[in-house]
Amino acid sequence: xxxxxxxxxxxxxxxxxxxxxxxxELSPTAEESARVIRLLKARAFRQAAxxxxxxxxxxxxxxxxxxxxxxxxxxxxAITELSxxxxxxxxxxxxxxxxxxxxGWVVINRAEISGTADQVPALAVSHDTPVKATFPLDNxxxxxYVEATPVVRMFPQSHCSLIFSALAHSVVEKxxx
Amino acid sequence: MKEIxxxxxxxxxxxxxxxxxxxxxxxxKARVALADTDVDAPNLHLTLGAxxxxxxxxxxxxxxxxxxxxxSACLQCxxxxxxxxxxxxEKPLVLPYSCEGCGACAIACPEQAITxxxxxxxxINLFSAETLIMVGxxxxxxxxxxxxxxxxxxxxxxxxxxxIGAEILLIDGPPGIGCPVIAAVQGADFAVTVTxxxxxxxxxxxxxxxxxxHFQVPVGIVINRADLYAAGKKAICRYAEITTFRSWLKFLVxx
Lengths: 177, 255
What we know:
The structure holds two protein chains of two kinds. Helix content of chain A is 42%, strand content 18%. Chain A has helices at 33-46, 64-70, 84-99, 119-126, 139-146, 151-154, 159-176, and strands at residues 9-16, 19-26, 76-81, 104-109, 131-134. In chain A, helix 4 links the parallel strand 4 (104-109) and strand 5. In chain A, helix 1 (33-46) packs parallel to helix 2 (64-70) and helix 3 packs parallel to helix 4 (119-126). Chain B has helices at residues 15-27, 44-48, 76-80, 104-108, 146-163, 179-185, 199-214, 230-244; strands at 2-7, 32-36, 51-58, 61-66, 86-87, 93-94, 114-119, 122-129, 132-139, 168-172, 190-195, 219-223, 250-253. In chain B, strands 3-8-9-2-10-1-11-12-13 form a nine-stranded mixed β-sheet, sandwiched between helices. In chain B, strand 5 and strand 6 form a beta hairpin. The longest helix of chain B is centred in the middle third of the chain and has 18 residues, at 146-163. Chains A and B meet through helix 1, helix 2, helix 3 and helix 5 of A and helix 6 and helix 7 of B.
């Protein structure tokens, strides 16, 4: 018996103006997503000297993929919406952050969908994770999303672009400056 | 009994809402049981409006345990582990969320200081809403092996379904295409995929359908938020046509 390597996915590097994008892709039917994430992060961090900031987009949920994506993070943004489902899953992710002693902020999306409007802010308080930004439902955001163009590029003066800009400013203040 | 699994690739496109609505609609026509296999963030009970009846912990995970009384700190276990789950310089330390419980370290250890033991990694809960019953899994925070937990949820849901003589078992799947999705799709009679007319949702849909094809499960597509973007809807229809010749693809537009 011997152990041999097997291809379970690919990693990519692409340049987007002043940004560099590292992408990890699991081959469909392979199970080793956590390995792809670890190798992708290793590849990206080998070039860490070239960058001031790494933004890691995680998969949904709380399992090993998410844990490996969070590993080594300085700060975490937990995105949610003001629905019972949003509150339920936010509580899970905030518990995960507590388990791994990671500081972070809550960001609320689609703020007009309420019903349990106070549940999310209450969770943010009880988990000591402040709400840093609140995004309204914005048609311009949907319009840019379906065209696969970031709203801040397509409609830089839109309401949500201004909120993104303020959030980016907070991130730089906290982590870069 | 027929098993129908609901998947999407991308998260947040409407899996649980569709599963709950289908559950209630089918309940008038057949005996239905439901299972929530999104063990990372289980919330079918919320979309269904179901109440928790009972629950128990489950050991659907195995981990390496080191007996430090026997350990000579040679660190051969660390070299053997392909999952980088053993760290430490002076003595080996197992990272529980990385350990797959494969047992290679236990074989490599010259002191026989390592055993593989079952550990609790989640809960299985029983919910009900009027005549509907639902079995849901819940991964413990910081734990791994969600695929094994999904298998356990399906096993328990099948038993419950047989108990009530269910004709249909509706399985709400997890997002993505990784191990819990593979566990959810295996053995299903039909897969319903949910998508929306956005580039990201179609991209992820195509990936999950590749996984479904691999397991030779017939599949259909449901388009949610269909009026969001006309060109996106066309792209999904085009994708469905191209894919039809190698599967049993049918599709349906939800307004």
